[in-house]
What does this fold into?
Amino acid sequence: MIKHVVIFKTQKNAPLNEFKKRIEDLKIYIKEIKSIEVGIDIRFDKNPSDFCVITKVENIKDLEIYATHPKHLEVIEFIKPYIKERCVVDYEK
It folds into this structure.
């Protein structure tokens, strides 16, 4: 199992709840996704990121399918104008 974790800092006006809905809906379109979750920061830390995405797929091939899927790319294009920083960690579980 591969976990794909992406953490974002965004512009102040970013529609985080819309990001959450669109990203979590990817499971409907991409069968390789075993699970996908979006967490919106609760502002506990003094220097937080704004949201994260945790996606589980079976293997690297499925991660590649997810990464290049047209619906995933469509969501990326929607959120891209709002992103200030992005960090990624992919690991086997």
